[in-house]
């Protein structure tokens, strides 16, 4: 458990806040490229500021300060006719990358984008989407860096045919076996978790030791400050940012990156729009309708009884903690090692900014950031004494067969 003062320090993100100062020194997703089809200006609420995407004098996108409508909800984007820009207000640079418009709201020059797979892959191989969660950004991030939660929160009591599950996480077969990933997670629920610091954040390794001296290896990543990169299947990874609208609501923005075949964007968009409404991308299953909880389903099909979309499971878990999780009452355990390491890293970076205001101590803030590739995010099954070599080899094999340059 931590103090209320510390909990406030690492969760609150408005202008002048400690965590907000860190987040503002990185490119943050501001909108989907799809949203630009509604026209400009486009209202954006980001890091506790009311803004709008507009075209600058040079024709490039910028994020400008706007006047707030008195009755505007945090997640609502009004029509362009309702947007009034603040005369003389701040503006921030914005740029499109593979389906997401990113904005830089910090001091000085914006950092370079790392050469991650989601940015270097061609547009044909990346699909972007987002969803609204009614909770603080940090608890949204922390569920994504907890490898153990998938064995419980996303437990499926029946295994569907992975061949019919394109575009859905945990529906692939485990590498080099016919065992569905849902079965691996269900039968081996207590992974050994290792965490390593990297030049982009944290590398998180979950080892599920199986029979016959085999181990399932799942490598995920925390990309500082607020993103994760995780395997969706052997074909695809997900890079997901957890972006504060304000202190009590956030969006997750995801880039689904395919290594071999172009993504079926129409199908993936259709799948997700069945679960979300427009224009605010709010989930149709939510607190107001108990997330469509079904006790019969819970008894026979899923751990939560809330359908097959794992985003709903995560949404229920993080929103159920309250708008801002009360960490003064929590008791962390061995499986929370990545969460512990991340909080230490965030606190260290807050302290570094407070000491001298320099950005060089923060990950990916120097010139070398542009050369950071990957990161490795995959599943593999190997003999227990060779899991590390096998995991790396599986990633290299996938990259070698990739039609775009995925070399690292």
From TrEMBL:
A GO MF label: dioxygenase activity
Highest taxon, organism lineage: Bacteria
Listed Pfam families: LigXa_C (PF19301)
Transmembrane feature ranges: none
Entry-linked InterPro entries: Cholesterol_7-desaturase (IPR050584), LigXa_C (IPR045623), Rieske_2Fe-2S_sf (IPR036922)
Domain LigXa-like C-terminal: 103-388
Keywords, alphabetical: Dioxygenase, Oxidoreductase
CDD domains, per the entry: RHO_alpha_C_DMO-like
Protein known as: Aromatic ring-hydroxylating dioxygenase subunit alpha
């Amino acid at each position: 458990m931590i103090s209320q003062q510390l909990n406030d320090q690492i969760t609150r993100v408005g202008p002048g806040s400690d965590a907000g100062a860190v987040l503002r020194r990185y490119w943050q997703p501001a909108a989907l490229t799809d949203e630009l089809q509604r026209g400009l200006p486009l209202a954006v609420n980001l890091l506790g500021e009311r803004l709008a995407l507009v075209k600058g004098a040079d024709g490039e996108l910028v994020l400008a300060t706007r006047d707030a409508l008195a009755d505007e909800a945090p997640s609502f984007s009004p029509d362009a006719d309702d947007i009034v820009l603040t005369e003389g207000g701040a503006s921030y640079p914005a740029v499109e990358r593979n389906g997401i418009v990113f904005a830089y709201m910090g001091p000085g020059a914006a950092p370079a984008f790392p050469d991650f797979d989601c940015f270097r892959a061609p547009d044909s191989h990346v699909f972007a989407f987002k969803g609204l969660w009614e909770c603080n950004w940090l608890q949204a991030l922390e569920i994504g860096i907890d490898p153990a939660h998938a064995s419980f929160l996303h437990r499926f009591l029946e295994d569907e045919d992975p061949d019919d599950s394109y575009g859905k996480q945990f529906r692939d077969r485990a590498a080099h076996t016919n065992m569905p990933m849902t079965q691996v997670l269900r039968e081996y629920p207590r992974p050994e978790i290792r965490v390593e610091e990297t030049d982009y954040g944290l590398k998180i390794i979950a080892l599920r030791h199986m029979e016959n001296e085999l181990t399932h290896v799942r490598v995920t990543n925390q990309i500082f400050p607020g993103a994760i990169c995780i395997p969706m299947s052997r074909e695809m990874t997900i890079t997901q940012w957890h972006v504060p609208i304000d202190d009590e609501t956030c969006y997750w923005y995801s880039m689904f990156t395919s290594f071999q075949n172009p993504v079926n964007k129409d199908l993936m968009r259709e799948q997700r729009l069945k679960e979300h409404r427009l224009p605010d991308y709010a989930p149709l299953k939510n607190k107001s309708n108990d997330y469509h909880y079904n006790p019969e389903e819970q008894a026979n099909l899923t751990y939560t009884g809330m359908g097959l979309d794992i985003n709903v499971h995560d949404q229920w878990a993080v929103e159920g903690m309250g708008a801002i999780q009360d960490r003064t009452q929590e008791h962390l355990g061995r499986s929370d090692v990545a969460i512990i390491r991340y909080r230490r890293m965030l606190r260290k970076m807050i302290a570094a900014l407070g000491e001298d205001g320099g950005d060089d101590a923060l990950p990916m803030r120097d010139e070398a950031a542009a050369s950071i590739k990957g990161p490795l995010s995959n599943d593999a099954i190997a003999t227990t004494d060779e899991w590390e070599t096998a995991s790396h080899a599986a990633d290299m094999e996938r990259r070698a067969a990739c039609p775009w340059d995925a070399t690292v």
